[in-house]
Amino acid sequence: MCFGIWQEYLIVRTDTATAQTQLQKEHVRPFDATGKPMKGWLMVAREAWPKDETMNMWLEMGRDFVWTLPEK
Prior knowledge:
Blueprint: E1 3-6, E2 9-13, H1 16-22, E3 28-30, E4 41-44, H2 52-67
Antiparallel strand pairs: 1-2, 2-4, 3-4
């Protein structure tokens, strides 16, 4: 899985270094649905992707990361 929707958030999977960089942005926080944040997963509020182009950037980030993972 590279991205999805959880409640009102876009969830994006990426590497931990990229996640740390993205967490510096407003309206982005660690994905924490269980009380334990998941490494490399981001919760992106709607305010962080006000335009389709911005949303595409988040989706491409998740897709590009998943392409680097080994096949199962």
